[in-house]
Amino acid sequence: MHTVDMDMLHKVLDASSAQYTELRYHARTLNEIRIVDGKVERARSVIKSGVGIRVLKYGRWGFSSTSIITRDELIRALEQAIKSASAKSYGSDTNTVRGLAEARLARGLFMPEINGRLEDHSIEEKVRIAREAEREARKGKGSKSKDISSASCTYREMIDAKVILSSDGASAELHDSKPEIVVTAIAGKGSMKVSASEGVCVTGGWDDLFKDKDHLAIAREAAEKATRLLNAKQPRGERTTIILDPAMVGLLAHEAIGHVVEADFVLSGSIAKDLLGEKVASELVTLVDSGTSNIVPNAAGTVFVDDEGVMTRSVRIIDKGVMSSYLHNRESAYIFGVEPTGNARAFEYNDEPLIRMRNTYIEPGEYRLDEMIKEVKHGYMLKGARNGQADANGEFMFGAEEAYLIEHGEVKEVFRGVSISGITMDVLKSIDAISSSNDFKYDIGTGYCGKYQPMKVDGGGSYIRCNAIVGGVQ
Amino acid sequence: MKVKDHNDGKGKRKRIKRIKEGLNMDSNTCKDVDLLHLSSLAVNEALRLGASEAEAYASRSRHITAYVESNDLKHIKVDEPLGIGIRVILNKAQGFASVNTFDADKIRDAINTALSMARACPRDRYQRLPSKSSKIPRLNGIYDSSIEGIGVDDVALYAYEMLKTAKGYDARVTVDSALFSSTSLEHAVSNSNGIDACERISIITWSIMGMARDGSSNVSNFDVQMGSSHYLRGVDVVSTAREFASNVVKSLNSRKVESFKGTMIITPNAFLELVKDPLVYAINAFNVQRRVSRFARMLGRRVAADRVTIIDDATYTEGIGASSFDREGVPHKKNVIVEHGILEGFIHNTYTAGKAGIESTGNASGGIASPPSIDTTNLIVEAGDIGYDEMVREVKNGIIVNRFSGNVSSVDGNFSGVVKGGHMIKDGEVAYAVREMMVAGNIYDALNDISMVSKERRLVLDSLLPYIAIDNVSFTAG
C-alpha cells in the first residue's frame, strides 16, 4: 500500500490563496502480461504516482501536477495552478464559475470489498494463467479448435491508492483494485481470417475476476466465437428490429444516452438540452448511472467517491421513459441548482476531473428472452460489444461482434459484426421488451471510454428489443 | 550461432566500466538531471543487478494546454511529466518496469521489478537489444527553442483566436470543445550494447470540435479539425477554425437518401478513421510474422491499386511523428511500404527484424511506460494526378465521407459505420448534405478499388494524406 505524508498535503492545502483548492494524491500500479501465440509479447509493471492540484481563482480553473512529492515541489505546482487560473481571460465570461454546489463530501477510508488481494498472487501465477488461457484458445478441447490460427491473452490489473483533500472539507483515502483478462482468438487462414474476443473486468480481487468462469472457459468462448464467425458473411444493411444482449445494452446506455446527458455536453448544446421532464423513451425504460454496482456486484466502473471528493450517487437519468437527471460535477450542479451526482472523475494524478460515467445500465423488465425472439418476424440478435460513438445531434453508432438473423421467431445463421446506428430518442422510444433480472449483467468493463482522458467504466442490462439501422452491405 | 555484439571484447570492457559507475544520484536534484547520463547509469545498474542485457528510456516534458468548452475558455493545465522505463533481458526472457520519478532508489526498485518480471517469463530466443550502429544523423527542424518561452497567457490567446475565428465565421457555429497545446519534450535511450541517444522535440497541436445549429432540429454532425507544427511560426489556428466552421455549416439542412451502391470519396480525416488502423496493422511485422496480417506472404505482390504509394518517413520534419531515432535508439529513415500498389516492405523493431534476419526499420514505438512495440512514424500517401474538384466531377453517384464513425476490423478488414458530414454527389456536382447514412465494406478489398487519388494533400498531425475515391461501396439509408 502506498503512503503519503498527510500532514504535508494539508499544509500545502492551507497555503493556497485560491477561493477553492483540491489536492489529489494518486498512486497507481499497473501490471500487464500479454501472451501472443505462446510467447510473452509484453510483461510490464508501471508505477505512476503524483499529486494533481486544481484551484479556482477569479472564477477560473487552473490545474497543475507533480510526480515529485516534496513540500517544495507541491508548493511550486500549487503556484503554477494559481498562475494558470489567473491567465489573461480573452474570452467572454460565460464560463466563469459562479459557485460550486453543496455536496456530501467524503471523509474517511473507502475501499470496495476485495476477494483475493491481487498483491497476494505472484507474477508467476499471472504469467501462468495468461499462458494457459492463450494456449487453450489455440489448442483447447473445443471441437473446431483446429480452425484457430492465432491467439492472445492479456491479463491487466490496476491497483490504486488515493487521497483527496479539498479546501471545503473533503478528506478521503481510497483504495481500489481492478483486474481484467481478455482472450482474442483468430480463426482461419489467408484472407478468410476473423477475430473474436472474450473478457472480464471487475472492481474487486482475483476471486471476483474468476467467480463466474475461469480463464480457460473465457479462452474457449473466444475460440468458439471466432470459429462460428469464420464462415459468416456481412449482413444486408437495413432498418430493422434488433435484440441486444447485455453488453450491447450497456453500450447503448453509454453511447446513446450517457454521453448526451453529461452536463458539460448539455451546456455545449447536446440534444438532451431542454429535455428534462420530457418523455424521451418507452415507459419500459429506466436508465441509471451509478458509482455503486447495483443489481449484481463487481462492475468495473465502481467508484464510491469521485475526484472532487463527492460521495457518488445512483442517478436515474431516465425514469420510466421520462428524462429526470443529467450527470454532474459540483460546478454544473450549481448551474442547474441540483445536488452533485459524483461524476467528476480523473484517470491519473495528472488528469483534471471531468464529468464521466461510472456503471450505466438499463433496469431489467419482465419478458423472457425466448418470448422476445418468438415475436420477431425479421430482425437480428446482436451480441458482444465493440466500439461506439455519440454525436451532438443524437446520432450514435455502436458495434456488435456477432449478428444472428431472426426469421419468424427463430434464431437462424450468424453474420459477422456490424455497426448499428440510430437517433437516440427514436431508438429509445422503439424499445418494446426488456428481459428479466435473471439475464442482467455488466459486460463492457474491459473497454475504456475516451474524453481527453481514458476512463474505466462499465455498463449492462438484460436483453432489450428495439429498432435501428444495421450497417451492412447492399 | 551468431556472436552477440555485447559479447565481443570491446563490449565486455564497456560493460565492466558501466557496472563500476553504478546508479548513484542525489535524489533532491534528480528532476534536472542530465537525461542521457541518467539512462546510461540506469543501464549500468541493471547490469550490476544481474541483467544480461538492459535498456533505459527516459523522458521529461512540459505541456501547457488551454481548453475551450461551450464557446469559452474553460481551463488551463500545466503538466511536467517525467519518468524512465527499464527493459532487461535475462536468460533470453524480457522484463519491463517503469517509474515516473528520477529518484535513484525508485529506479533501482523498478530495475528489480523488471528482473523479477523476466524471471517469471519463458525464454524467447529472439529477444535482443539493437546493437550500436554508426552515428545517428541528427534531424533538424523538430525543435524550436522559442517554445521554452511560451506561457499560459500565450496558449490562452491562441485558443481564443481559434474560437473567435470559428464563431465569427457563422453565428450558427457552436464550439463544443477546442484546445491549444504546446509541448517541449526531451527523450534519451541507452542500452548495454552501447547505444546512447538523446534529443529535444517541440510539438504544438491544436484542435477544434463542434457543430452548427440552426433552430432546434436542424443540427449538423460533429466535425473535428486538427493542426500541428514543430515551430511556433508554423501555428495557424485560423485556417483550422475556418475549415471546421465551413464543414459544419455545409452539413446543415441534411437529407435522408435511399440505400445505394456507388463511389465513396474519403477525406484525409476519414482516411485516419477508416483506413489507417487496418493499414498499420497489416504492415506491422509482428502481425505479419504471426500471419494474422492480410499482407502476410504478400511481399512483392499487389495490395493496392497502381496509383497508390505509401511511405513511412520519420525524417519528414513537417509531421509531428518526426525524430532522429526510435524507441530503441535505432536511427530513423524513410521506408517505402507500398509502391505503385506493390507491397515493398513492412515496419520492424529489433525483435521482428531479428526474426526476419534483417535490420530494424526504426519503427520501435512507445513511451516510458511500455516496452517497445511497432508503429508508423509519419504516414505518407503520395499525391495523385487529379485535382480534387475534377475528382468530384468524375463521380456520377457517390458520397463524400468527411468523417467515419464506426468499427473496422483490422484482421478481416470489414468495416461498418456512420457517414459523418457526408455530401451526396450527383452527376459530378455536390448536391446536398446527407444524414443517417451507413457505409460498409472491406478495407483491404477497397485498397484495390481506389479509382482516384487527389493532387491535394493534407497534413493531419503525423499523416500526410490525399483525398481518395473508391468505387462500388455499399451505403445503407436509415
| Oligomerization | heterodimer
Tertiary shape of chain B: globular
Q: What number is the mean pLDDT of chain A?
A: 93
Residue-averaged pLDDT of chain B, rounded? 92
Radius of gyration based on Cα positions of chain B: 25 Å
Assess the beta-strand content of chain B as a share of residues. 35-45%
Return the structural class of chain A. alpha+beta
Distance between the termini of chain A: 57 Å
Main sheet characteristics of chain B: 13 strands, mixed
What form of chain A results from the Cα inertia axes?
Answer: globular
Greatest chain-chain interface?
Answer: A-B, 90 and 91 residues
Low-confidence stretches of chain B: 1-20
Structure, described:
The complex is a heterodimer of chains A (474) and B (478). Chain A is α+β, with helices and mostly antiparallel strands and 474 residues long. Chain A has helices at 6-14, 71-85, 123-139, 206-209, 215-230, 246-258, 263-267, 330-336, 369-374, 424-429, and strands at 20-36, 39-57, 60-66, 107-110, 148-166, 171-187, 194-201, 238-244, 287-290, 315-319, 322-323, 344-345, 354-355, 359-362, 378-390, 395-407, 410-423, 433-434, 441-442, 448-451, 453-456, 458-461, 464-470. Chain A folds into two domains: 6-230, 2-Layer Sandwich (PmbA/TldD fold), CATH 3.30.2290; 238-470, no CATH class. In chain A, strands 1, 2, 3, 4, 5, 6 and 7 form a seven-stranded mixed sheet that branches. In chain A, helix 3 packs parallel to helix 5 (215-230). The mean pLDDT of chain A is 93. Chain B has 478 residues and is α+β, with helices and mostly antiparallel strands. Chain B has three domains: 5-59 and 81-120, no CATH class; 145-250, PmbA/TldD superfamily (PmbA/TldD fold), CATH 3.30.2290; 254-478, no CATH class. Helices cover 24% and strands 36% of the residues of chain B. The N and C termini of chain B lie far apart (63 Å). The model of chain B is unreliable at 1-20 (pLDDT under 50). Chains A and B meet through strand 2, strand 3, helix 2, helix 3 and helix 7 of A and strand 1, strand 2, strand 4, helix 3 and helix 4 of B.
